[in-house]
Specification:
By secondary structure, this protein is α/β, with parallel strands linked by helices. The chain has a domain at 101-177: 3-Layer(aba) Sandwich (D-Maltodextrin-Binding Protein, domain 2). The chain is 31% helix and 24% strand. It has nine helices and 13 strands. The chain has helices spanning 11-24, 39-42, 48-51, 59-66, 120-129, 142-151, 161-166, 209-225, 262-274; strands at 2-7, 30-35, 72-76, 88-93, 101-104, 114-116, 134-136, 156-160, 173-177, 191-196, 233-237, 242-247, 254-259. The strands form three sheets. It has a five-stranded mixed beta sheet. Strands 7-6-8-5-9 form a five-stranded mixed beta sheet, with helices on both faces. A hairpin with a 6-residue loop joins strand 12 (242-247) and strand 13. The longest helix is centred in the C-terminal third of the chain and has 17 residues, at 209-225. The radius of gyration is 18 Å and the shape is globular.
């Protein structure tokens, strides 16, 4: 049986696709990789909000899956929209890697630093930690952003620790930011194997139950708030408690709450935002 795995074509994405392939390989199964270019890959300069709706690194891969050109889509789960696309389902989450954000170029956040990130979530939380920071937009793959830090003379950049780990670049990390400082994106650190609805058996053996137990409430919470990569929201389950955050873009207003029910938690945060 041939299983066609679709993913983005960056070095990190292909490394992640190989991780997925390793989880799916078994006697009688042949794997083929299908690199797919997304809107987020084609436009590496504009902020995500100017490119289109949430899921700018996902849409074209999902279209290939719906169109039958691939059998399994591999995504960084944090890049997915917070609700499932009609006709598709996450059939497996691989075991979650480090969900934390990482500071590259410095070992601490200090007043007046110039820090690069394209994430509204990171921007809001950084400014909440230290209002004197200068947050500069920074796009590109992992290697490109590390190079741009040097070229532009930035004091630091913030990236997902898991991507650096997967690429063998952990030595670039100055400090891994505790979720108390920087609450991660919902589902950060996990890889999602997406299939057509009804074809879950193709990947179900690769599903990591504890990762799913944590990630699904994170995604439900963000979906209920109505946020995603275009809004300063975050949700993270540490295995015991679900924590969530909503903020404004300049970090002057940030609300954090914790609980067990993702929908109730989201409603509380959305109510706080509406009451402002």
């Amino acid at each position: 049986m041939l299983v066609r795995i679709g993913s983005r074509g960056s070095r990190l994405a292909l490394t992640q696709a190989e991780q997925a392939a390793g989880a799916l390989r078994r006697p009688g199964v042949e794997i083929a990789f299908v690199p797919i270019t997304t809107a987020g890959d084609r436009d590496r300069t504009r902020p995500f909000g100017q490119i289109g709706e949430r899921g700018v690194f996902v849409k074209e891969i999902e279209e290939a899956l719906l169109g039958g050109r691939i059998d399994v889509a591999v995504h960084s789960a944090k890049d997915m929209t917070s609700t499932d696309t009609d006709g598709l389902i996450v059939g497996a989450y691989l075991e979650r890697d480090d969900p934390r954000d990482a500071l590259i170029g410095a070992t601490a956040i200090r007043p007046g630093m110039r820090i690069g990130t394209a994430s509204a979530r990171r921007r809001a939380q950084l400014l909440a930690l230290e209002p004197t920071l200068q947050i500069e937009p920074l796009r590109g793959n992992v290697e490109t952003r590390i190079r741009k830090r040097d070229e532009r003379g930035l004091d630091a950049i913030v990236l997902a620790a898991c991507g650096l780990d997967r690429l063998g670049l952990a030595a670039e990390i100055g400090v891994r930011l505790d979720p108390e400082q920087m609450l991660p994106e919902a589902a950060q650190g996990a890889l999602a194997l997406q299939v057509r609805a009804g074809e879950e058996e193709l990947v179900s053996s690769a599903d990591h139950a504890e990762t799913r137990r944590r990630i699904e409430p994170e995604r439900r919470c963000v979906a209920a708030i109505g946020g995603g990569c275009l809004a300063p929201v975050a949700a993270h389950h540490d295995g015991v408690t679900l924590r969530a955050l909503i903020a404004d873009e300049d970090g002057a207003w940030v609300e954090r709450r914790s609980g067990d029910d993702p929908v109730a938690l989201a409603a509380e945060l959305a109510g706080l935002a509406a009451a402002r």
